[in-house]
Fold this protein.
Amino acid sequence: MDTETPLIKKGFSMKQICSKEPISAPQPDQFQISKLIVTLGNTYVRLSARERQKVMRALTQFAFGKKTSVNCRDLWSESEMKRCYLQLKPISPKMANDMRRWASKLLKVGHNNCGALKCLMDELHCRRSVEEP
């Protein structure tokens, strides 16, 4: 019985099948980023409604700033991340620290763009609407 046939039917090449590396392993950085997003979401839903509005305002300013047009591929810098951290710290030190960890990880792997931040904001918004009655 040919055990490689089902993998070929699924679109894997012979090179992928014969290599000793796993065919599709989750990336450790992506797993950590997902974990940080969940942590941010948990922290966000525990804030009061007024604090959540302030957090969203700070994140919107972080993502889009004073630019007239924003591309999802526009990158943000470490200095912008620090400014956002300083804005979030008086609102919620835990939220600020979680945000700093998330942004630092994105800077490390090179995914520090406005699109990633917009996805985070959408995730937080969805978490809020799910958690509230």
Observations:
- Helices lie at 5-9, 14-18, 28-45, 49-64, 78-88, 93-109, 114-131.
- Residues 27-131 form one domain.
- The chain has a mean pLDDT of 76.
